[in-house]
Amino acid sequence: MDVESLQKSGRRRGSCLDVFLVVSTMFLLMAVAALAAGGVMVVMELRSELETTRPSSDPGTSRLTGDTPDSAYKMQNFAYLEAVSSKLQNSTMELSQIKYGAGLSVGSNFQFEEGTHSLKAKQVGYYFIYINLNLTCTYQCNAGLLSVRLGDKLTCEVELPALADTTPVSRKCWTVSRLDGHKLFTQMTVPKEGLQNWRLELKTSGLGMFLVD
Ligand SMILES: *[C@@H]1O[C@H](CO)[C@@H](O)[C@H](O)[C@H]1NC(C)=O
Ligand SMILES: *[C@@H]1O[C@H](CO)[C@@H](O)[C@H](O)[C@H]1NC(C)=O
Predict the structure, then answer these.
(1) Which GO terms describe its molecular function (predicted)?
(2) Any idea of the CA torsion for 33, 39, 44, 50, to the nearest 10 degrees?
(3) I want to staple 155 with a disulfide (CB 3.0 to 4.6 A). Which of 69, 82, 149, 169 is the partner?
(4) What is the DSSP string of 58-103?
């Protein structure tokens, strides 16, 4: 038996495996980079969308420059609701529209009910929907999973660590989904032991959506 040639072919097979591993690792890294770039682009698009939908603070001049019809059109298809309670509990998430430029943060294409905190998009179509959650620990907080679900459209989960300082924990979730004119409720779910001493930061937690088609 030619031991040497056996070893040689074994070595060759080994180096083939090495090349395969290097190539697939590189491919994986590239895929991860591409995914990250995609995410950044979506966030940047969202940011520019938010900037262009922000109405001018002086409606008089914008009417003169012919700005209003466009921004009014965009504004009507945009809704943002801010959290109004810091409590984390099994319940409907309490939300409210806020002042936005000269108007309110819920456009005329939407119907928001203060009492039930429900939101309805009147126009059927595809919407970009996002949830921002920002939490801080006030004192010796336990770990646990916080989940915020908008109907069957979007679920945003935050794995809260056991924490004793006030480092905020934040999470942004988004999706594009078809809305068909039904009322949507935002349900919050906490673990059985609760999430004592965690609080939801109101100004930086909320729910938004805009028509994309
Ligand atoms: C909240 O609801 C979930 C799911 O129904 C349940 O597992 C959990 O124990 C509830 N939490 C509290 C604090 O009741
Ligand atoms: C979360 O809230 C804290 C405290 O208000 C704030 O400093 C931080 O910038 C917020 N983070 C995000 C991502 O909004």
Answers:
(1) tumor necrosis factor receptor superfamily binding
(2) 180
(3) 149
(4) -HHHHHHTT-HHHHHHHHHTEEEEEE-----SSEEPPEEE-EETTE
Region label for 194, one of left (φ > 0), alpha (ψ between -120 and 50) or beta (otherwise): left
* Span from the CA of 85 to the centroid of ligand 1 (angstroms): 19
Q: CA 194, CA 184: separation in Å to the nearest integer?
A: 25
Does the pLDDT of residue 143 top 70, yes or no?
yes
Q: Which of 88, 147, 187, 190 to mutate to test the pocket of ligand 1 (most atoms within 8 A of CB)?
A: 190
Ligand 1 pocket, 90 CB below 6 A? yes
The answer to whether 187 and 136 are in contact (CB under 8 A) is: no
Supply the residue whose CA is at minimum distance from atom 6 of ligand 2.
Answer: 168
Ligand located closest to 200 CA: 2
> Please, what are the domains in the chain?
78-211 (2.60.120.40)
DSSP 106: B
